Amino acid sequence: MTPSVGTIDATRPPRPAPCDDLATWDREHVWHAFTQMQEYEPLLIERGEGAWLVDTSGRRYIDGSASMWCNVHGHRHPRLDAAVREQLDRVAHVTNLGLSNPTTVAFARRLVEIAPPGLDRVFFTGDGSSATEAALKMAFQYWRQAARPEPARTRFVAIGDAYHGDTLGAIGVGGVDRFTALFAPLTFDALRLPSPALPRPGTATPPSLAESLAGLEALLVAHAGTVAAVIMEPLVQMAGGVLVHPEGFLRGVREITQRHDVLLILDEIAVGFGRTGTMFACEQEAVVPDLLCLAKGLTAGYLPMAATLATGRIWEAFLGTHAEHRTFFHGHTYGGNPLAAAVGLASLDIFRDEDVLAELPAKIARLEAGVARLAALPHVGAVRQCGLVAGVELVHTVADAARARPAVPYPWQEQRGTRACLAARRHGALLRQLGDVVVVMPPLCIDDDEIDLLVAAAEAGVVEATA
């Protein structure tokens, strides 16, 4: 029977719009994040498989940014696809405000099982910024409701050049000016500890580990009784430019915060789920925070979901009768979504069943050998790597440590990092820049040959952008 006008023929799949129309609509209607739309040129990705993405014209690219650092096991992994389909046969969404569902409960249990010991309460949100926001509010409210309340603890200590998200609380503890400076009047000022990974002003060398830890100790002494928590990314500051901390810094921060009875919030939104070589970065220095923020790889890059894990100490401060008004009044419509929880569970099964973590050391070494070539290029000031992520910093003039001369950056208006990523795209790789730092961060599923292709494309892009 021929369908009548105005009805949908269910026997035929929907026909996509012509590519030219899609590109026009993309320019006219879609406001892209962190993108100057006046200069934007559309690139429409139609499908993916493994570590590869394919655009609407059929051109293939290695996903060298893991689709904004969240893809873990590759695109169209059959077990992840199946998990979403199976959950759809049950229920797509159940509110987490006073209700629950079996899939989300099971996912919370699995997260507790793999998390550092003691982090046994899971608060679900929708994205990394929301996970940070929840952690900040939990820490703030905790000190008002603890067994021995200390309401004067209202301040936060953050690392210089940190990035923890785009909501107002996350901006308050953020330290990357190009992301946060405009909105500073809307939020609060964090106490700032210089990044232990960056050279001291006017020098070519970073502070020593002892100097950095002494700086934190002095900061907490100077603001005794007023600091609620220290927040940091463990091991490496991702959006700050892949800034790798010295070994022992995380462990030292934990010891100092415990000595001063200050909470520690660890932001593993970008560094968790195998990115640094272990399931969680904090495992490498045997650190257990009071609050742990997770997102991105939490669902292997399939669906939006985030979580803030808390210790029993934090949890107990929020318990009481309705009349005591101790509830955590914070939540999101899609927090704990069962579709996202289902794919998150399947991702943890893949980690377990396919020995993902055991295969990472060889891949990390392969990437390290590849990007080492880039360090010798004339306008590469540094190559920094932690696990399966590397940052290639482009500079006008490299630093001279012997003469204590710092590197001379390119004028920011020249957009050398952006130009390098666009050039790498022509060589078959999608990369993301952080200012003039080109980030190489593929899915964990990438194989050796694909790593070589990715590094070659990044090298070609850097050479073209700095010629």
Give an account of the 3D structure.
The protein folds into 2 domains: 19-73 and 356-466, Aspartate Aminotransferase, domain 1 (Alpha-Beta Complex); 82-353, 3-Layer(aba) Sandwich (Aspartate Aminotransferase, domain 2). Helix 4 packs across helix 11. Strands 4-12-11-10-7-5-6 form a 7-stranded mixed beta sheet, sandwiched between helices. It has a 4-stranded mixed beta sheet with strand order 1-2-3-15. Strands 13-14-17-16 form a 4-stranded antiparallel beta sheet, with helices on one face. The chain is α/β, with parallel strands linked by helices and 467 residues long. Helices cover 34% and strands 16% of the residues. Residues 1-12 have low confidence and may be disordered. The chain is built from 14 helices and 17 strands. It starts with 18 loop residues before the first helix and ends with a helix.
Number of strands: 17
The gross shape turns out to be globular
**CATH architecture name of the largest domain:** 3-Layer(aba) Sandwich
Kindly provide the radius of gyration, computed on alpha-carbon positions and rounded to a whole number of angstroms: 23 Å
Mean of residue pLDDT values: 94
CATH superfamily heading of the largest domain = Type I PLP-dependent aspartate aminotransferase-like (Major domain)
Q: How many domains make up the coordinates?
A: 2
Spatial strand sequence of the major β-sheet:
4-12-11-10-7-5-6
Structural class: alpha/beta
User: In whole angstroms, how far apart are the ends?
Assistant: 64 Å
CATH topology of the largest domain: Aspartate Aminotransferase, domain 2
For the biggest sheet, the summary is:
7 strands, mixed
Low-confidence stretches: 1-12
Number of discrete helical segments: 14
The helix content, as a percent range, equals 25-40%
For this structure, what is the CATH class of the largest domain? Alpha Beta
- Which percent band covers the strand fraction? 15-25%
